[in-house]
Amino acid sequence: MRKINLKLKRFLNNSYSIYIGEGIFENRLQAEVSRLAPSKIAIVTDSNILKLYRDKIQKALPSAEVFSFSAGEAQKNMAVILELFSNLSSAGLDRHSLIIALGGGVTGDMTGFLSSIYLRGVPFIQVPTSLLAMVDSSIGGKTGVDTKEGKNLLGSFYQPKAVIMDTDFLKTLPEAEFTNGMAEIIKHALIKDKNYVKFLYENRESIRMLSEPFLTEMIARSCQIKAEVVQKDEKERSLRQILNFGHTIGHAIENAMNYAIPHGFAVAMGMIAEAALSVQRGILAEDDFEKIGKLIKDYGLLCFTDELKNMNEDSFFRSAKLDKKNKAGSIRVVMLKELGMVYHQGRNYSFSIENGEIKEALEKIIGVVENG
Ligand code: ADP
Ligand code: ZN
Questions:
Q1: What is the pLDDT along the chain (372 residues), one digit of tens a residue?
Q2: Does the Cβ of 133 fall within 6 Å of ligand 1?
Q3: I want to staple 222 with a disulfide (CB 3.0 to 4.6 A). Which of 104, 177, 188, 310 is the partner?
Q4: Is the previous residue joined to 262 through a cis bond, with omega within 30 degrees of 0?
């Protein structure tokens, strides 16, 4: 089992550990429950996870009450929060109780948010079961729900008491969901660690087969990178921006396609475009760009390029300008200097880009598929 400690400067009592390993669910969860000694335990999960893991949950924590909602991003809304709130309230959960989020990013974001507002905040534990949730949404304390105005617009920063990642869960994860999570993993390597880029490239067969110890090693390295970044800049004022690599363009693609393609696949195309912008600006070498394209393609992340060709350009630029991370209507992206290193000027990690440059960069995505 691997253990990563997350220490948050301004909230020392909010420091916690992330545990990663094969088959650690039951023992680790029981250990955390003994440590926290809650008055009651509620597990919140989605319908898919409940169906697959009802017995496993029951065996690990027989005394816990389990509440579920229908799987899917469409359920990440206030109506479901209120429903879950009523369930917890009727079950008599108090401020000394524990809430456990068991599931993908939807479950984690929503349960984290509910935990942050239930009786003004009760302890919670994240047990992410999708690859995306393990390496991305379960670390860093962002919680929230979607509204008709947009995604994640209502939420809070709220840190869990522990995060438990059991790679056994990944065996039932649909392959496309695994691939979806790989985009953020590739992102971590590209922004922070050249050796990790090499690891991902050399072990791509083993990783796609879910072989240990590669799987645990990979998740641990990604969590370490994300934890380090979040630790230094919890509320995204400066360094945390590097985690947005591939996301300005990725989000705009997702949005222009009305969220018809999964997040990771959009971010993968966004990373290629933002790497291309870095080449266009003379910051990144052409052969590093080619390596990035090959890595992303080999992990099966470039299967929505036909949708990209048909994307409405006006809605793409409209969404890019509206991204909540941009300042004053300009489109800003994170750029790469080399494999494993972002470009920055002092504490500034994102740079304003013209529409014409972006059009050129979008063409390069198609180029990677057709020529590579
Ligand atoms: P995210 O991709 O952010 O984790 P979701 O929470 O919607 O988003 O999870 C993606 C999908 O994968 C959902 O349908 C969810 O029920 C399903 N899922 C998550 N973890 C597992 C798992 N270990 N086995 C099977 N399905 C899973
Ligand atoms: Zn992302």
A1: 999 999 887 665 678 999 999 999 999 999 999 999 999 999 999 999 999 999 999 999 999 999 999 999 999 999 999 999 999 999 999 999 999 999 999 999 999 999 999 999 999 999 999 999 999 999 989 999 999 998 899 999 999 999 999 999 999 999 999 999 999 999 999 999 999 999 999 999 999 999 999 999 999 999 999 999 988 877 767 888 999 999 999 999 999 999 999 999 999 999 999 999 999 999 999 999 999 999 999 999 999 999 999 999 999 999 998 876 666 678 999 999 999 999 999 999 999 999 999 999 999 999 998 876
A2: yes
A3: 188
A4: no
**Going by CA atoms, what residue is nearest to atom 3 of ligand 1?**
105
130 lines ligand 1 (CB under 6 A): yes
Q: Which amino acid appears at position 8 of this protein?
A: L
Q: Catalytic amino acids?
A: 120, 142, 184, 226, 236, 240, 244, 247, 251, 263
